[in-house]
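From the shared-data thread, chain only:
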Amino acid sequence: MKNTTSLLFCMLLLWGCKTPQATTIDENKSVPDSFNSSTDTTNSALTNWREFFPDPNLIALIDTALANNQELNILLQEIAVDNNEILARKGEYLPFVNIGAGAGLEKDGEYTRHGAVDESLNIREGQAIPEPLPDFMVGAIASWELDFWKKLRNGKKAAVARYLSSVEGRNFMVTNLIAEISNAYYELMALDNQLEIIQKNIAIQRNALRIIEQQKQAAQETQLAVNRFAAQLLNTENLQYDIKQKIVETENWLNFLVGRFPQPIVRSSSEFNDITINDVQSGIPSQLLTNRPDIKQAELALEAAKLDVSIARANFYPSFSIEAGVGFGSFNPKYLLNPQSILYNLGGDLMAPLVNRNAIKATYNSANARQLQAVYNYEQTILQAYIEVANQLSQIVNSSASYTTKAKEVDLLNQSITISNSLFRSARADYMEVLLTQREALESRMELIEIKLSQMNAKVNVYKALGGGWN
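Structure, as tokens:
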């Protein structure tokens, strides 16, 4: 017995020496101290999305999407699958017990081994073994793999990490869904305002066309001036159709996101230019590690990958299992539950790979490579999160400054339209100056709406980049 134990110990040492070492890299979680030299930890990501987006129409859309969005519901089913995987993994390191019953007939030939044994028995006349011999059995069989190297327990831990990772993936999707609906909603409001600007400009140009036609009849202007005014009016009228098509597509996209067939989207577009951009508090970069669901998702995926390496490494070591059975067996049903019909067995196995371990090595190397891949993905996610926040904070500052400048330009060009029309009527300006002023005023108004939309998008995107919305 002592020699056997020593032999087993030496075999374990041999297997351990042959196990390849893992190539590990510690993940880098370090981030800069601040985004913009501020160390204030107040973070807008902690604000509930209902408070961050106070528009009741937008809140109604988001509420509907969180309940009906098909992609989100599909992801919830994936989370349920991952949860079931935990139960399956947990069951692997617990004993398996099966109960069964059976019945059969057996007929041994005279010249078989069993037949020869039967012939050699001293069986009295009239007491021969029945042919064929019935066989009835009922009992329980148990098997249990001893999780000596924690391979099965690590498998359960990896399943838990992947389940939690999928939950964080769901949270990240909620954040993206809220941001996508908000951006589309503000885009729809911007399109409404652009359409209104075009229609107002069409009315101004129609009035200018009537004036130039009257002057042409009075021989004060030529047909060329009339044609130029008419062409500009047609060009402006044509712009509205593209805007109308974009409105339809944006409405349908919003309806798709909330999981319903196309219907009108309720909104208050007249208030678009009056929406104020409240101060967004970015906090400090280290808060991204806890606020951003995608970072937590990558971290949990890395944890699962590390456990997979441990599981793959355990395949190089011996596995221990115990099998046992107890039940009743008899050739006659009336003796089946007799104490003398009890049968049982107990055994143990020790199995270990000895030669041709290429498949195990390949599995281990692949697990190790996926671990390194998860490390790089985790670090990349942190870097991407920081850059997204920095970009959107800059966008808020620059778009706000741009809106102020463009608003002044719009005011000046609106005044220029009135001035140019007055000068044209008094023959102190030609029609080209009127046309140019009208075109510049229209373009500046449209650009002002686009800058306002850029402001709103920056507000939405910085909230998403900070990790807001899912909680």
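Residues 367 and 431 are 75 Å apart (CA to CA).
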